[in-house]
Fold this sequence. Notes:
Layout: E1 10-14, H1 16-21, E2 33-36, H2 38-46, H3 53-69, H4 74-79, E3 81-82, E4 98-101, H5 119-133, E5 138-142, H6 146-154, E6 158-160, E7 178-180, H7 185-188, E8 194-198, E9 201-206, H8 209-213, E10 219-222, E11 228-235, E12 241-245, H9 264-273, E13 280-285, H10 291-305, E14 311-316, H11 332-336, H12 341-350, H13 358-370, E15 372-374, E16 388-393, H14 400-407, E17 415-420, H15 436-443, E18 450-455, H16 462-470
Parallel strand pairs: 1-2, 1-5, 2-4, 5-6, 7-10, 13-17, 13-18, 14-15, 14-16, 16-17
Antiparallel strand pairs: 3-4, 8-9, 9-12, 10-11, 11-12
Helix pairs in contact: 9-10, 10-12, 14-15
Amino acid sequence: MIHHLRTRRCMFVLDTNVLIHDPTALFRFQEHDIYLPMVVLEELDGIKKGASEIARNVRQASRFLDDLMADADVEEIDAGLPIEHSFHDARLRASSGRLFFQTQILDAPLPQVLAGGKADNAILGVTLALMQRFKERQIVLVSKDINMRIKATALGILAEDYENDQVLDDADLLYTGVAALPGDFWETHSQDLHAWKKEERSYYLIHGPLAEEWHANQFIHLDGDNPFEGIVRGHDASGAAMVETVINYTHPKNTVWGINARNREQSYALNLLMDPEIDFVTLLGQAGTGKTLLALASALVQTLEKNRFNEIIMTRVTVPVGEDIGFLPGTEEEKMTPWMGALMDNLEVLTHTEGGNIWERQATQDLVRSRIKIRSLNFMRGRTFLNKFLIIDEAQNLTSKQVKTLVTRAGPGTKVVCLGNIAQIDTPYLTETTSGLTFVVDRFKDWAHGGHITLVRGERSRLAEFASENL
């Protein structure tokens, strides 16, 4: 939202879905006023029960409203309640606006095609009435519903999306985790260059303008006659970057559970996934780029061979692409199995061995599957994972709050890997710039124990790659 650029104080009418999406929206309009129609309160009251994320958000919004109304009398409510928050959020600026509730009937004529009794139309009617009553003020309707905004615009109402949770202005600006170096890099950055070796790895301390711009665990590469590939391990007080050469996982000798990287980005991803010093990894890319396969292969090696982790836990958001198939029988793991087709497909690749009899292959599959647990997001609150390799698939369908809930489950010795494709978001009201996956990629890019790679090449098949580019 661009309300921070407004030169005069506005009144924002909030749709119900704004508070459902972000209960703290009440405190994010800075010096501007907020108006809540009575139908919004009615809708919140109707969906406050249950254990879903929506119900929890509604209850939190109701608690905020209760705190703002504490000890207020009728006259104070009519005059507008000062909006003040008591919770800590470093990114939240102080609010100086007022909160108004609808305390009297406000009605404005709507076109006959807009059916009466519908909540959206009631909100539109209240907004029109406010525009007629306060002609000197700018009245703005804020809604996450595109159709609601279209109807409002058709009626002459200024309508905007709620975008305070937007991480970036454009998804194309999202951090990729990789930086290509110019051809004259060594000439321009050779001053005060220090190099040394340690345990078969080369290290460089690089000074220069480009070095100051690099993020922690960002990969840099130089193509040409003298190719170079490295990972930035940090900066010293002078801004110089310490760069370590990467392991080339495309080479046949550097296999991970029997597989090799097929391109540069996959090799970089395996460097992050296999690094014990990196606790949080995000892999972003279109279908077929190998996100799940790479994560599973590295998890199996570190769990079964290196004993870094006790168990592999895999979870994902259960948002269907088509029609829902209804309730599923069985335990938590059995209910999640239909959603884990990607896991089963990749396990089939990883447990397939050339030669050997059927009993050996079956024994391998049973061993692998005994160390992999499938868990539902619905039961993650309050849990703590110790020495686990946690894979969160389809993370683009999570809100920033849901991602925070999951990542904060990590206890000592746990590694968290988030996989997703922000071009395939199935959750209502989430976009490429507001997805929880975008949120964590941007927030973790400067942390010394986090890493990100955007995979760009599809490796599933030539058919799948052609379809991704042309359909």
